[in-house]
Every structure is written in structure tokens, then in C-alpha cells.
Amino acid sequence: MAPTAAQRSPTACAATAAVLLLLLTSCLAVAATDATTTTVATGGGTRRVLVANGLGLTPQMGWNSWNHFQGNINETIIRRTADALVATGLAKAGYTYVNLDDYWADSQRNNKGYMVANPKTFPSGIKALADYVHSKGLKLGLYSSAGTRTCSKQMPGSLGHEDTDAKTFASWGVDYLKYDNCNRDGTPETVRFPRMARALTNSGRSIFYSLCEWGNMDVAKWGGSYGNSWRTTGDITDTWTR
Ligand SMILES: *[C@@H]1O[C@H](CO)[C@@H](O)[C@H](O)[C@H]1NC(C)=O
């Protein structure tokens, strides 16, 4: 979609304003009415993003628990992984995200409707884990699905609970959300994934939003408007057949 005047870069806006004070007033007015969509510079031009959190301007780097551990994660493993990222020098090289995948939460929401950490495997809770990871200079990522349950079906998904979950994640100090596409309700990805983008934008914290809808619905054409990254395939593994 071609940008309208309201979505052009703030730099152009400021330059014009320097010449004509009157125009500054109109630029500010435009900014005020366009608060949910922001234009970011990407080197080759600009693109509109809903999650204008300043993240993802270069590819994210770090670790995700799924490839090696699948569902067998616990807080000790995650803390040790954070330690290892620092000890091996990977953190210094830019591998700063420590991301939990499926299985981190208790199987049901609590009686107030909030997701909670699995009490057996993450007894200290996610906030304590985030504090630990942050103390190492790293960032903590979490996982959910745009469906009623996650892919394992062992924990709730965020469909219909986007605002609650985004605010919960923000309150714990979470820095990243991988949002999967299992156990959906039939509404298209182009509806379900933007809902979480809005919720994260309103959460009060800059949270990297990783769309994981597997390349359905031509995500390359719209993912950049709603997320900081968008996966274009199913799972990859450490096999080297191509
Ligand atoms: C975490 O998992 C590891 C590896 O399976 C295990 O040795 C350890 O006892 C577990 N710790 C907790 C707190 O569950």
C-alpha cells in the first residue's frame, strides 16, 4: 500500500517545519491522530509498523529451547543456558535472547484468567527468571499461540486473551514473544496476529513480536506491518539435506 501524506517520514516532516512554522502545527496534528501506526526507516526506504517498538531493525539473535529440549525445559536449564551464552562469548557476539518455547506455563489459567508458570518446572516464576536473565545482560523470550491452546496442547494459547497476556508478559519483564499458530478457531492469520500486535503495543513494554504462522497467507506481504519478524516456513531442524 502506498503511504499517505500522514504516514511519511518524520524527518521530511521536521525539515518542512523548519521552513514553515505553520506546517509544524499540522505535522504534530497528524502525529497525534496516527498514534497506532508509525513509519520506520529501513535503509532502503520506510515501512509502516503497528509494533513501533524500535526492535528488529537488524535480525534477532539468541537461543530458543525447542530444537534441543522440546518440552523438557525447566528454570535450571534456562538459567544455565543464560550462563553459557555469557561464558562462551556468544552473548558478547550479540546472541542475547534466551527464549522459552512451548511448555513453560501451567496447563490452565488461574482463577483470575491469568497464565501462570508451570509450578513444577518453573517454581520461581517467570519474573524471577527474567530478572536473572537481565542480570546477565541478556533478554528473556516467551511463547504462546494465536489459538485456544499451544501446539503441545499442554498450556493455554492467547486467542481471546491477547490484552491480558500481553500485559502479564510485560509485568514480568519479558522482552520477546514467539506467537505460534496452533489450535486456531478458523479466523484468518491476518486477523489473529494483528490482535496480539495491538495488545503488545498497549502493554507498556517494548516486546519483540515474532510472528510464527509458518508462511500461511503470504505472511511476507503483511508480516512487516504487524511484527518485528515473521517466519516463512514450518520448523527447521539441524539436518543438512539441502
Ligand atoms: C531440570 O531438568 C534437568 C535435565 O532434565 C534435571 O536434571 C533437573 O533436575 C531439572 N530441574 C528441575 C528444577 O526440574
TrEMBL record:
Domain of life: Eukaryota
UniProtKB keywords: Disulfide bond, Glycosidase, Hydrolase, Signal
InterPro entries: Aldolase_TIM (IPR013785), GH (IPR017853), Glyco_hydro_27 (IPR002241), Glyco_hydro_27/36_CS (IPR000111)
Catalytic activity annotation: Hydrolysis of terminal, non-reducing alpha-D-galactose residues in alpha-D-galactosides, including galactose oligosaccharides, galactomannans and galactolipids
GO cellular component entries: plant-type cell wall
GO annotation terms (biological process): carbohydrate metabolic process
Signal peptide location: 1-29
Molecular function in Gene Ontology: alpha-galactosidase activity
Pfam families from the UniProt entry: Melibiase_2
EC number: 3.2.1.22
Family, per entry: Belongs to the glycosyl hydrolase 27 family.
PANTHER family in the cross-refs: ALPHA-GALACTOSIDASE, ALPHA-GALACTOSIDASE/ALPHA-N-ACETYLGALACTOSAMINIDASE
Name the record gives this protein: Alpha-galactosidase
